[in-house]
Amino acid sequence: MTAVAEAKIKRRVLPSPVTGQEIVLVGVIVVLWAALAVSTPAFLTAGSIQPLLVATAPVALVGVAMTIVIITGGIDVSVGGAIMVCSVLTAKALVGTDGVSLGVAVLLSIAAGGLLGLVNGVLIAYGRVHAIIITFGTANLFMFLGLRIFGSGTVNGIPATLAFFGRGPDGRTLGIPHAFLITLVITAVAWWYLRHTAGGRHFFAIGGDAQAARLAGVRVQRRVLLAYVLTGVLVGLASCFVIAQGTSTLDQSVGSGKELAVIAAVVIGGTSIMGGRGSVLGTLLGALLVQSVASGVTQLGWRSQLSDLFVGIFIIVAVGADLLRARARRSR
Amino acid sequence: MRPRFTAAVVMATTAAIALTGCTKKNDTDTAASGDAGKKTYKVAFVPKLQGVPYFEAMNAGGKEAAAALGNVEWLYQGPTQADAAAQADIVRSYIQQKVDALIVAPNDPDSMAPLLQQAKDAGIHVATADTDAPSSVREVFVNQATAEGIGQGLTDSLLTAMGGKGKYAIVSCGQTAENLNSWIEVQKAYTKEKYPEAEIVDIVYAGEDQAKATQMATDLMNAHPDLTGLVGECTSSAPGVAQAVKDAGKIGKVFTVGLGTPQAMKPYLQDKSSTAAILWDVENLGYLTAWAGAQIAQNKPFAATNNVSSELSAVAYTEANKMLLLGPALAITDKNVDQFNY
Known about the structure:
The complex is a heterodimer of chains A (332) and B (342). Chain A has 13 helices and 2 strands, in the order ααααααββααααααα.
């Protein structure tokens, strides 16, 4: 086979590198940033964009894994509870004279997250109950666990060990926030993996038709398990970002509602909630758009609740666009 | 998604009530057996949110009062998130348990009012503490400090640091929180009156989310490059605004004050990113709450000045608005922060 023919086949088999939704999102973000740059004094300065990227990181990072989960036709509504467990465990380990180092804290958080993800994964892959039911249950279990670890108080006096991921000067190299850079690299790796490896394509196959995928030789249960464990691992890392962005006190509202923020970013990013289609790049852009709107609303001096309104509109528009695309595909 | 999530919270809370309810009962059974024959009054307090140091300190004060009074069984249960619906469920469960006095710090005063009516109809004495429900049937409101005391304390501390002039912004929390809004009203009026060269440029609402409060404070500093002051209106945004100033490297340029609990504010008071935390003695507030609950449960009237304990020897009561006042607001700085263990 000639190289030209091979390239032709590749083009036919592989989806286009960027989807329509991503181009639209880039357009919307560019227009929004331009509008904010004109209408507010300091939106487009390092002092404003750097914290914005830091605030985007945890949602986008968990969003990468959530995208894979949703591509397989599942969902994970327990990530808020999981963030709570990982954060409080890690925060408690950091406190005190014998507090752990940065590396140990990150490993501990990732291990805890991975374990919680494994619980979800095993129940979903082998329990044959829909993911929303399982993770709905575990969300409550995780919240209970998190509250028990909190005891009846907050975690006070958290040292600046995790400032590497934070908003302050320790959290940046050459002006780029570490938390966002890490998120960007992980998103890029996930993008490549989902697009160019057989293992990555299997996630799409499972979401398209799990039965057909199984008959085609895909180890469905193992893949599904992997998706949830990966979610847990990234939740663990994101929890370190969350601690770094908070104050020296951690209270029990941590993680609350984060599952909705993550799912919103995924949906706005163009991933089909029905599974089978989606992109981690879109999720990153979705998270960036949501945070840009929130910061924009504050910087413009508008009412805080308007950002909820805009996010709501984005979700409905994104889902509507997805349905229209699906209809167009069917009629083709 | 939202209703599902709310349902999740409700489920979790109900489970928590079931669990802690059992242990509480066992506790009091053993305690009550000591002085049999004497009537014990069940005084229940429902905070806005359980597990935060502020309300836990109130709980500690309430327990202390119950031990000192001898004839009071102190019950304490709150939602795990500052959610009006979850709080309403806990209030309903106390109505069913037929407690003698039910005291609430409502998340949403308007939706709490009909529930308090329901409690009164069931023969329960009702009161509010920390946050009032002004349009309800409550018999007394245990007020930590007047809105004037808090609002003026915050404004004076901040404007002293700012040199009496300049632009500042407020990062508040729940948008419907009655007490926060009443303090903000005072801050607006008092700033205008006493500091004509100062201006409040924006008021934003971050909910109870620390990271969000910090991010909003950062956005406010960017939106107003000439901003020299920030107020954190509640216990989650007070450290949040200080953290934002610290992260932006603006300590000494942007000053912050807030309604913060001492231990949470300590690092920020020490590195000067926070000038002062305005608060009151929260344990004493809990003590007064339990005492007031015992009074109304026994149908005892309040005097104009009440001798509650050695630390609360002259608590003023105003008949016109049925309010017990703990006392003047307290400024916590790096000098006195170590006196408080919560």
